[in-house]
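Here is one chain, start to finish.
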Amino acid sequence: MKDYANPLLLLIVIALLSWKVSMGIETPSAVEVWLLTLCVTGFVVNGLLSLARSMAHRKALMTVIWSTVYLILCSCAWVTLRQEKDYRAEIASYNELNTKWQQGGINPFELYDNDGRSLLELAAILGKKLAVRGLLAQPEAAQAPDVVLRAAVSAAENGRHEMLAILAQQQGGFDFNRNIDGRTPLVGAVLNDKEKCAEVLLQFQANPNKADESGVSPLMHAVINNNRNIARLLIQHGANPYQKDQTGRDAASCSRSESMDEVLAEGA
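Its structure:
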């Protein structure tokens, strides 16, 4: 039986980890506790066994391997937990606003949390596809373009490229090429190095030369962040490397490396 203990435990851990990845931030806390507990248990038990076998001059290679496997899985589980911890406040705010909306008689596009985020924006940040589609299907959506635009900016900043595609495909279309709170969704994506979001926005006709309120273009932001992949993506979609901001700088003047200069030369 002991020969099957580690493979069985590994299957359980992988199943729980897969469930957690699919559920994301909505994973039940009990699943997270069990996942970490099993990983730590597998690591500690196999680590102790390998130590005991080494002291007894017995072969300990397999126990060392199993211990390493559980350590890696434990690290993966811990990293996902840490990445999602920041969204706990958004989950609480979303649940509160959604409850108010479900009670009826309230325009969902007039519901905001204490930080000024709308129900749609919170749903986009959390990656709730069904909720976003449901909100966009409401008749009030057509009368709330700024709410939708803020949701798009937040989705881009948080790497939710699926949400951007849903927003772009809403009935009547949606204009990504407006500044809201000083920036477009594309600028938000570039500022936060969200390459996939930038790619989706450009596919839906986001203007690669639409600057923020300071006149800084998406390409200039990519150059300042030294993100060559996004800079190349913008140039491929027609970004102008000679476009200047309000101080007279262009993308080339912001470059700090020869490799970025080479990327900019592709658009010259």
